[in-house]
Structures are given as structure tokens and as C-alpha cells.
């Protein structure tokens, strides 16, 4: 468990944690659900939130599960006060262990941290680790490159752990995977008023496309197309 | 072949054609390649175009081919002066005929049409049909809905056939499919200065999201993430 009491134990030592990014599986559904709800609260969009653990489970972890990064894929970021065991890192329980090997990194914290949600977010993999954030991505396609890419739908780090490079670690993991798979692009969206995020993304090497706007057809407007048979009438 | 000579044959009759939207297969690759190149020319972006027939073929029509709308999916719009034969409509050659039945519609043209590319774009299915446009889409995912949707990467109608409702027919086909599959959204992008397109999309029931901007990591900036192992350094 992470709390400021760790600081008292070794005041002269830098506070170090081990960070791990690994593929999510169905055991992570309750945490993913809570993280998405926190994101909706942060964005003041809870009125648009209708996700349940059951709907997440059936859409993100169907059986059989497609290989990671060829369909909807969730990576979990978790932190532990102790090194992760090697066997756990090898991820023997995933269908395609060769496709994504967990990324593990020792992180020195400049100041002690209080995580009031540490119990609630205890990792299902145990070992005293806590789930801190996630990224959800899926393949997209560029017709000009004739190559798939990865689209990052969500990237989220819990409030207690922000501004410590974990968002960058999650996004870098997706970029590294895209590069490794020979993909052409990684894309995501940002709100135009979020100048801090925009600076951060540009610093990571991304360009923000100023002229494109997203169009969305949803709800009853979408259902009407189902009713009239796809433009037959 | 479509030309203005059809008008001379029956001056009092409305000019009718049959329009069909069907799943593309590997036989359509040469046409898809030419259509994407025309789109790049239209957008003055040929310097970003590096697509070949071979790269399209391997990325859009891999073997085995995933079911339509669960991965990258191309729909072809073709027109014929004669009704399409029923057997051709049934699409016996696709892996999952039940998932998308071709949409066929009789379209009356208000004026005769000259298609200078009719020979070049003769349909690989024969029957005197010509390929007129395409749409490429793939699944995306909403974490607030816990539902997949469809993202429309490209929608294109050749110059000779524009402003006759064929773009709407293609987009409606995607919307109808999304509704039929119980998906939550259809999304696509538009350039902010393209006010005609924006009006058209809004009329179709879509909302344009004003605040979101696309971020893109590509080229050497992306390759660097592959080299450093995903944030390990």
C-alpha cells in the first residue's frame, strides 16, 4: 500500500516504485470500469456514461479473445513498492505472450505520495501493486499509407499519480508497439483548450492537426438509419 | 458504358441507373487504388500518398479475411444501366454473406451523364457496371458506452458522379450497418472550411464536435519510440 508513511521509513533514500505496463484481462474489468467512471467525472461527462462491468467484459474481453492490438486493447499501468516477479512479467496467462511483453521501469518519486484509493485499486495480480491508470487503443487505417495504425481512445492516470511521467509512459508504450508492428501512425484526440496536454503531446513528437473536426452520428439519429434499411428509401 | 448517348435513345424517359453497394474483395484492389489516388489528388496530398496495389491487398484483404465490419472494411458503389442479377446480389463469394447484404437502388438521373473513366473503372463483376466510389470503415470503441462503433476513414465518389446523392448512400449504408450491429456511434472527420460537407453531415443527423483536435505521431518521430523500447529509457 502506498502512503506517506513510506517516507518516514527511509528519509534519506529516494522513494522508488516499480511501474509496470501490462495487457489487461477480464480480471481487470472492475478497475477499468472505475477508471473510466473517474475519467467521466474528470471530464464532467457522467451523463454520457452508461458503461457497466458486464458490458465492458463482453466487448473488451470476448471469447475467443483476438490478439492484442488487432482489436480493442487495454494496457494497465500498475505500481509496486517491490520489484515485479519475473514469472508475473512473462504473462503466461495471455493468449499471445510474444506480442506484448510487459514494460517495467523503476521510478524515483521526488516526494512521498498518499494514495487514498490504494485499497480499492489493489492489483488483481497481487504482490502489493496498485492499479494507477490505463490506456485503451485499437487499430485504425491510413489509405494513403496502406498501413494500419493505432488509435488511442483513452489514456488515464488516477489523480494521486499525475504529473509524474506516467501518462507519457503509457502513450510511449503504445507508440513503441505501433513502431514494432510496422504501423504507420498513432493518433488520438485532445480538447483544443487543453494547452498543457497539447504542449506535452507536441513535445513527444506529435503534430496537432488544426483543421480536422470529428463528426458523430449517434443515438436516435443513428437508429433511424437502421430502421430505413441503409438508404434504400 | 455510361455516356450522354443514352439520353438520345429515350429523350422522354427519365434516365435510370441501378446503384449497388457491396463488400469489396481482392478483385477490387486496382480500382480501390485508383480511387484513393484520385482522393489524394482532390485533397492536393499526393506527396503523402505511398500506397501500392500490393500494400492495399495485403492490409485490406489478408488471408484469412476477418468478418466484415470487425476489421478494415471497404464497400464499393457501382452503377449499372441494367438491373443487377440476383445471384450477384447474394454475394456467394464472400466469407460472411449474412453480415452485409448488398444494397441495391434504382436511381433516376435528372440529366444525362458522361463518364470519361467508364472503361477504366469497369466493375470486376461485369454486367456493364462501373465502379463509382467507395467507403472504408473499421470498428472503433467508446468507453462511455462500452460499445463498438464504426469509424469512416474515407468516403469518395468519382468526379463525374458527384452531387447526386451517392455520398449519402454510402454513408447511410455504414450507418445502417452500425445500427443493425447494435453499435453506438458512427464517426468520421471533416475539414473545418468544408462548410458544404458540414451542412450535409448535419442534415444527415450528425453533430460536428467543435473542440476536439486530432493528434498524430508518425514517421521518424514514431520510429524513435520503437528504437527506445517503449519508454524504458
Question: Could you explain how this protein is built, in words?
Answer:
Two copies of one chain form a homodimer. With 233 residues, chain A is α+β, with helices and mostly antiparallel strands. Chain A has one domain (4-188): Aminopeptidase (3-Layer(aba) Sandwich). Chain A has seven helices and eight strands; from the N terminus they run αβααβαβββαβαββα. In chain A, strands 3-1-2-4-5-6 form a six-stranded mixed β-sheet, with helices on both faces. In chain A, α2 crosses α3. Chains A and B meet through α2, α3, β4, β5 and α5 of A and α2, α3, β4, β5 and α5 of B. Chains A, B: Pfam families: Acetyltransf_1 (PF00583). Chains A, B: Residues 74-220 form the N-acetyltransferase domain. Chains A, B: GO terms for molecular function: N-acetyltransferase activity. Chains A, B: Keywords: Acyltransferase, Transferase.
Amino acid at each position: 500500500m502506498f502512503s506517506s508513511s513510506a517516507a518516514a521509513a527511509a528519509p534519506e533514500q529516494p522513494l522508488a516504485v516499480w511501474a509496470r505496463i501490462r495487457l489487461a484481462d477480464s480480471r481487470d474489468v472492475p478497475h477499468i470500469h472505475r477508471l473510466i467512471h473517474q475519467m467521466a467525472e474528470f471530464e464532467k461527462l457522467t451523463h454520457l456514461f452508461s458503461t457497466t462491468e458486464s458490458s465492458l467484459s463482453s466487448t473488451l474481453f470476448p471469447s475467443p479473445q483476438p490478439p492484442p492490438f488487432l482489436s480493442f486493447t487495454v494496457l494497465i499501468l500498475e505500481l509496486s513498492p517491490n520489484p515485479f516477479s519475473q514469472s508475473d512479467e512473462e504473462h503466461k496467462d495471455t493468449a499471445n505472450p510474444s506480442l506484448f511483453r510487459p514494460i517495467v521501469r523503476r521510478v524515483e518519486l521526488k516526494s512521498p505520495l498518499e494514495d487514498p484509493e490504494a485499497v480499492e485499486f489493489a492489483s488483481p495480480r497481487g504482490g502489493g501493486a496498485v492499479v494507477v491508470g490505463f490506456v485503451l487503443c485499437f487499430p485504425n487505417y491510413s489509405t494513403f499509407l496502406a498501413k494500419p495504425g493505432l488509435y488511442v481512445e483513452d489514456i488515464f492516470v488516477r489523480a494521486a499519480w499525475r504529473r509524474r511521467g506516467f501518462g507519457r509512459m503509457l502513450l510511449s508504450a503504445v507508440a513503441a508497439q505501433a513502431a514494432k508492428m510496422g504501423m504507420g501512425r498513432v493518433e488520438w484526440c485532445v480538447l483544443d483548450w487543453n494547452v498543457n496536454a497539447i504542449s506535452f503531446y507536441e513535445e513527444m513528437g506529435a503534430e496537432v492537426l488544426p483543421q480536422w473536426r470529428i463528426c458523430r452520428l449517434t443515438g436516435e439519429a443513428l437508429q433511424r438509419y437502421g430502421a430505413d434499411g441503409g438508404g434504400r428509401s
